[in-house]
Design goal:
Number of domains: 2
CATH superfamily of the largest domain: Creatinase/methionine aminopeptidase superfamily
Structural class: alpha+beta
Shape: elongated
Bound molecules: magnesium ion
Number of strands: 19
Radius of gyration: 25 Å
Length: about 425
């Protein structure tokens, strides 16, 4: 996908307008050493990337609001020696032109230029507390400005968290973002379908994880969006299981929670299916329950709902199902009020999705109420049921762990399920897994 300069310029203009006055400082993420001199694969900071589209490490964005707003990038210098070893760098001049900044300077000029830029600014927008080393550096610049008080230069007397302003912007996906997320979702969906076709009893969980990486990279995704969960049998009842090192057994279910990152945007899909290709009676019963809970939740993803409505809808279906399966006792309202259902469903039904898997954005409004769903919001819908062995549980249901997760866009009409190509009905799963 070609770089959409206008989109990023528009985001900076919106943030500048929302700031009103003052200066914003937004650094990107540091490179992180994995061991000795090997680094983890580099991932830019989501806020910085959202406002710049710039992917190199050692970069920082400054926005100066007011009557003549300015966007300034600090980035690494061109350096032929380093480029021979590590690859291309834009350098300030090319970055300014390519990414549409008003000014661009060397990252090495930060300590010289930031105190000047901070002088006489009423307000600083900065994510204090997010990174200790940047906090120390920003404090140093502020102290430098304060030391000039007798020359008439003043330091900002208010620091506001810039993330608050950007979070609200990130919550509403643009046409450009929705397009990238549709593609991220369809890559991940194809990977889940591929996994269903590749699974055989006797294979290892990591072999199936490898199928995901294969599908992600060959379709152009830059990384998994998070560590894939490939959980056979009882492992599915560990919510964040990611050892992925057990053998897949006939008769077990396999829960896979895996998504990719494409041009910065995450997909997040969970599918659960039988290793053998055929659900047992008990597995099918619980699976159909979770699927019905998900359908009921997705039906609530619309502009007439609030954030918690899909969760409430899923919970109602699940709790009734737990009663029917003799997992819970009592009335539906009793099971929900007492929280007895939490033995089998202990997480919520979704989260915002975007540049981060658990994306930015408030879940409640300023009055403390669940916020209304609005067109352009993107969320996951992921009910589940996790039945660990216990005395109060019929033995036939032990170790069944099921989650079904899709990525859903709120629109002015019905919700759009971006991950709809990942098959999930019992019939479709059993048919795709049929061995000749
Ligand atoms: Mg997930
Ligand atoms: Mg999720």
């Amino acid at each position: 996908m070609s770089f959409n300069l206008q989109e990023f310029q528009q985001r900076r203009a919106t943030l500048l307008a929302n700031m009103g006055e003052g200066i914003a400082i937004i650094p990107t993420a540091p490179e992180v050493i994995r061991n000795r001199d090997s680094h983890y694969p580099y991932r830019f900071d989501s806020y910085f990337y959202y406002l710049t589209g710039f992917k190199e490490p050692e970069a920082l964005l400054v926005l100066v609001a007011g009557s003549t707003p300015k966007c300034i990038l600090f980035c690494r210098d061109k350096d032929m020696e380093r480029e021979i070893w590590d690859g291309f760098r834009y350098g300030a001049e090319a970055a300014k032109a390519e990414f549409g900044f008003d000014e661009a300077y060397s990252f090495n000029q930060l300590d010289e230029m930031l105190p000047k830029l901070l002088g006489n600014q009423a307000k600083l927008f900065y994510s204090l507390g997010a990174d200790a080393s940047w906090d120390a550096r920003v404090t140093g610049w502020l102290n430098h400005v304060k030391a000039q008080a007798r020359t008439g230069i003043s330091a900002p007397d208010e620091i506001a968290d810039v993330r608050k302003l950007v979070d609200e912007m990130r919550l509403f996906k643009s046409t450009y973002e929705i397009d990238v997320m549709r593609r991220s979702a369809s890559i991940a969906a194809a990977a889940h379908n591929r996994a269903m076709q590749k699974v055989r009893a006797g294979k290892m969980e990591y072999e199936i994880e490898a199928e995901f990486l294969h599908e992600f990279y060959r379709k152009g995704a830059q990384a998994p969006a998070y560590t894939s969960i490939v959980a056979g049998g009882a492992n599915a009842c560990t919510l964040h299981y990611n050892a992925n090192n057990c053998v897949l057994k006939d008769g077990d279910l396999l829960l896979i929670d895996a998504g990719c990152e494409l041009d910065g945007y995450a997909s997040d899909i969970t599918r659960t299916f039988p290793v053998s290709g055929k659900f047992s009676g008990a597995q099918k019963e619980v699976y159909e329950l979770v699927l019905a809970a998900q359908a009921s939740a997705i039906a609530k993803v619309n502009v007439n709902s609030h954030w918690n409505a899909p969760h409430e809808a899923a919970l109602e279906v699940l709790a009734q199902g737990f009663i029917d399966l003799k997992l819970c006792k009592g009335s539906l309202s009793g099971v929900i009020e007492s929280g007895d259902y939490k033995q089998f469903y202990m997480h919520r039904t979704g989260h915002w999705l975007g540049l981060d898997v658990h994306d930015a954005g408030e879940y409640k409004d300023k009055a403390g109420n669940w916020r209304k769903l609005e067109a352009g919001m993107m969320l996951t819908v992921e009910p589940g049921c996790y039945i660990r062995p216990a005395e109060n549980v019929p033995k036939a249901l032990w170790n069944i762990g099921i989650r079904i997760e899709d990525d859903v866009l709120v629109t002015t009409a019905d919700a759009e399920v971006l991950t709809k190509n990942a098959i999930k009905s019992v019939t479709d799963i059993e048919s795709i897994m049929k061995k000749d």
